[in-house]
Write a structure and sequence with these properties.
This protein has 12 helices and 9 strands. With about 300 residues, it is α/β, with parallel strands linked by helices. The structure holds phosphoric acid mono(formamide)ester (CP) and norvaline (NVA).
Length: about 300
């Protein structure tokens, strides 16, 4: 087997993360200048979605088209996986047809199994532990707005979920300080937190988890939030909406951040719950620039993994 590269965890691109952000910037510039860039001519990407998606699906599909290639949307109900074909066999077969597989899954184990059995790169389009492609786009957005990660502090307010986990690892890798404010029982994954802290020691950043959102946003340059009920947690909705109420990103909370702090959200947002309309539509919100950057970041990831750019 060749030396294919997967992106299951953001840790898989740890040593190339800054390079990927540079590539995303250069690809975005070319796109804005109307310059064609087609390193994936004739290549295909299979996309398996076990969960809904707007941004990930559209940015990967349009990204493949813009890079000269093609993407196929596959839902498990249409695939034979839905009728019992194994993930391993699916990986082996798809590898004979396509040049890469993107997989949005309920369980990390399934993404790992697909990656281990595919001879083409496998890209994690979100699972229960991480959302690496999201965070690559987020770091690109932060870099665009601030020029550097030095002396920056990101405050994450809300659920210690997949997005929070990847943000902790991403912040540690690029050397940005991060404080997550999460209610008791909803903290980020302990193993991921320990890994982020180990990496942060080398990169010189500080990683904290606290319970008080006001403490987290103090001196923050970026305030980030995500939904309180992730896909697959719908049964916990009522309980979660109660627990997370004090974690809403609203104007009052933002008063404690730096004056020029920006607000980010990976989207989809539940307006009036984790974020107010006022903040989401206000001057500090960069959520739609962030959403656009999914496309540019995806193109960098695809060019790197599928064509070695
Ligand atoms: N942020 C994100 O991944 O959005 P989708 O669920 O719409 O893909
Ligand atoms: N944490 C959210 C992110 C959605 C993009 C979820 O997993 O549903």
């Amino acid at each position: 087997m060749g030396t294919k590269r997967d992106l299951v965890s953001i840790l898989d691109v740890k040593d190339d993360l800054v390079g990927l952000l540079e590539l995303a910037a250069s690809i975005k510039n070319r796109t804005k200048a109307g310059e064609p860039y087609e390193p994936l001519r004739g290549k295909s990407l299979a996309m398996i979605f076990e969960k809904a998606s707007t941004r990930t699906r559209v940015s990967f599909e349009v990204g493949m088209t813009q890079l000269g290639g093609h993407a196929l949307f596959l839902s498990p109900n249409d695939l034979q996986i839905g009728r019992g074909e194994t993930i391993a066999d699916t990986a082996r077969v798809l590898s004979r047809y396509v040049d890469g597989i993107m997989y949005r899954a309920f369980r990390r184990e399934n993404v790992v199994e697909l990656a281990q059995n595919a001879s083409v790169p496998v890209i994690n389009g979100l699972d229960d532990r991480e959302h690496p492609c999201q965070v690559i786009a987020d770091l690109f957005t932060i870099l665009e707005h601030n020029g550097s990660f030095k002396e920056l502090k990101l405050a994450y307010v809300g659920d210690g979920n997949n997005v929070c986990n990847s943000l902790l690892l991403g912040a540690a890798i690029v050397g940005m300080d991060m404080t997550a404010a999460c209610p008791s029982g909803y903290e980020p994954d302990a193993e991921i937190l320990a890994t982020a802290r180990r990496i942060a020691k080398d990169s010189g950043s500080k990683i904290h988890v606290v319970a008080d959102p006001v403490v987290a946003v103090q001196q923050a340059d970026v305030v980030y939030t995500d939904v309180w009920v992730s896909m697959g947690q719908e049964k916990e909705k009522e309980q979660r909406e109660k627990v997370f109420r004090p974690y809403q990103v609203n104007s009052k909370l933002l008063d404690h951040a730096k004056r020029d702090a920006v607000v980010m959200h990976c989207l989809p947002a539940h307006r009036g719950l984790e974020i107010t309309d006022e903040v989401m539509d206000g001057p500090r919100s960069i959520v739609f620039d962030q959403a656009e950057n999914r496309l540019h970041a995806q193109k960098a990831i695809l060019s790197r993994l599928l064509a070695g750019v």
